[in-house]
Amino acid sequence: TPPAEKYEYQAEVSRLMDLIVNSLYSNKEVFLRELISNASDALDKLRFLSVTEPQLLKDAADLDIRIQTDKDNGIITITDSGIGMTRQDLIDCLGTIAQSGTAKFLKALKDSKDAGGDNNLIGQFGVGFYSAFLVADRVVVSTKSPKSDKQYVWEGEANASAYTIREETDPENLIPRGTRLTLYLKRDDKGFAHPERIQKLVKNYSQFVSFPIYTWQEKGYTKEVEVDEDPTEAKKDEQDEKTEKKKKTKTVVEKYWDWDLTNETQPLWGEVEFRSILFVPAISPTGKDDLVNPKTKNIRLHVKRVFISDDFDGELFPRYLSFVKGVVDSNDLPLNVSREILQESRIVRIMRKRLVRKAFDMILGISLSENREDYEKFWENFGKFLKLGCIEDRENHKRIAPLLRFFSSQSDEELISLDEYVENMKPEQKNIYYIASDSLTSAKNTPFLEKLLEKDLEVLFLVDPIDEVAVQNLKSYKDKNFVDISKEDLDLGEKNEEKEKEIKQEFGQTCDWIKKHLGDKVASVQISNRLSASPCVLVSGKFGWSANMERLMKSQTM
Ligand code: ADP
Ligand code: MG
């Protein structure tokens, strides 16, 4: 057997390993994500090269990743049938920081040190191969490039300044092509060698890696990651399935209302490349909408198909749209990007903008469905969230407003849209009238309606507590202001000064008399032309709370 040769790490590598081990100890599990993404990269490279050199695949046709665990001895092996490494590759890639994420990381670290910064920077970068030493005190890399007829073994230990490389001679250990990484876990980290633990981590981080991943369970390998369909194919399939289902039977409950797949790959300067799948579930998963604490873990962010996070608290996607579920995958973010970094990231802001646009396109699509029932059901489940959007997201008022639905004085059984209201407006009508109330019945019976009904003006019935605030936030729709018909200054545009003078003379004293008797209980008593049958009505001041709001506020403080 040729002897193992000893090599010193490039100085930066030792420093990097120190840093990784000391800064990431609380988040050790990232090692698996890093190693799987390296395996996936190696498979990608091979697949790419094999297009022009198909003979590269001859020793093993399958492109996959296999993870085996030995929980008794605390050993994990990760095997890929990718491009492998030659002896020189091993020296260049695992002993030196030649390029890629790690090199950038060290440079940034140096710049930040020069600027008096600290080590937190590590969170921004993929930490790569050396993250193996987070959990292992010995790492053995046995690798065979299809361009070499020899297999080599790289071996390194935690906290060491040197590593060794030797040729693999044991026939038992020979692999046709690719790389086998063996991690001898540290005493306290042997728990990672439990098959269920690995299985869980793989599911979580690597669901969308584009090669199958098998994990070793008691009885053999289990496929964790099922791939090889083109996502656009998936879309076609699902749509076919959808129409198929519709054809077959109407009673099948569909699992989602709509979904959308983006392929945002415009590599323009400054653009962000990412892909996403969003969908609107058919029913609210929580059963009951929770407006105060919307479930925000609705969008799962992946970088190069490796799961990064679903915990953004509204940074990547607005909270009020949290009923939309989705997956996002970007190549433009570093693997180990932290939440703090995401919050500041321009890339995330751009993604958010586009995701929001997509979500609204999708909801608009449902609202335009020929089957009116579709949107009615959607509205029943998620309408509240859109109303919340009127309050929380001024920027998107134009997108939200057309999606709102209300009952009205002319449609108290079927919800109408603001567009329908506007179409139904009288030629001289300038405002969108509404009355907020605690129920449809009381809205229908309010004396405020009389004059408007007489004039055949439609009035929206706002019967959900959040409706009134939502509409007040919108202020207007298509240049028509929302006007509360219970407010003091309601002007229906019928000034007849002669008549008013007459009436004032006749009833002025009556008003004074009533005011004297009611005292502080009312702000003023006035003659009004807004009623037709009722003798009087209590109205709210122009700048005061509406009766409905007052009711709401009372119920909040009690
Ligand atoms: P990065 O993946 O950002 O390049 P890493 O530290 O993760 O940095 O890996 C360093 C290099 O080692 C890779 O660029 C690749 O050339 C090589 N490498 C690591 N793992 C494998 C593997 N499983 N198969 C082939 N090459 C690998
Ligand atoms: Mg890597």
From TrEMBL:
Residues binding ATP: E34, N38, D80, M85, S100, G101, Q124, F125, G126, V127, G128, F129, T179, R339
Entry similarity comment: Belongs to the heat shock protein 90 family.
Keywords: ATP-binding, Chaperone, Nucleotide-binding
Keyword Methyltransferase: no
Domain of life of the organism encoding this protein: Eukaryota
Protein name: Uncharacterized protein
GO MF terms, alphabetically ordered: ATP binding; ATP hydrolysis activity; ATP-dependent protein folding chaperone; unfolded protein binding
Natural source organism: Cannabis sativa (Hemp)
First-to-last residue of the parent protein present: 88 to 645 of 760
